[in-house]
Amino acid sequence: PNVNSARDEAITLLQRSALADGHAQKRAGQGREFEALKDYQPGMGRRMIDWKRSARHGKLLAREFRIEENNNIVLAIDSGRLMCEPVDGVPKVDRAVTAALLSAFIALKGGDLVSLFSFDARPRVASGAVRGSPSFTMIQKRAAEVDYSTEETNFTLALTTLAARLDRRSLVIVFTDFVDPISAELMLRTVGRLTERHLVLFMLMRDVELETLADVAPAEPEDVARSVTAGDLLRQRQVVIGRLRLLGAHVIEADHQRLGPALVERYIQLKEENLL
Fold it and tell me: In sequence order, what E strands does the chain have?
């Protein structure tokens, strides 16, 4: 993957984000650490108003909090057989690495700790948690070690190993793919245990090829069979996504071009809402 391009794209996103100054931002009525009072502005929720101090000062005042830093962010990249299939000419795992680097840059600028973990039939890359913008270079180097594999992914071994390494609540971001509920069953069982302690976010790339096959108007009998099969696979995929959400995991399914930006947007949202 083009690991160097992630920094440029991340800087562009960062300039448009709520974390633009690289520090935990103040938000009225949000966060956990009380920071200060400020004049109430139209559009702020009524729950933000500090009624006691407002009465004392003779004007409406809103509570302002500081968004927490030092959250633990784990970027877990599946490099197994399914993730090595191409999307628009580029292996899914390469696109996942680029999206992971994008979010790593943003998270490090936002004051959080970041670690990288990759796996196929067994755990592969496992970096320690690092903090601070200068540490992005180390994450880049470890990301370059993520390799292609022809082996089936062993989710049980990988996610159990990862969970054992985590000594505090973490945001675990899993870049992966799956075909049907049967092949995903072991993954679902392991995820159920992981969500008991951690916030888990699955990043999936839309299967545009399957969607096209399912939607195309059949011209030949073979087209009908392909369309039906594609539709069945897409429905089975949605079954797995639904079960992940029932287990408490967050799921983002995005076009490959939007994978990184969609992840950054969700990360910032979770951070501002102090759900990490």
Answer: 26-28, 33-39, 61-66, 72-78, 86-87, 90-91, 113-119, 123-126, 170-175, 199-205, 250-254
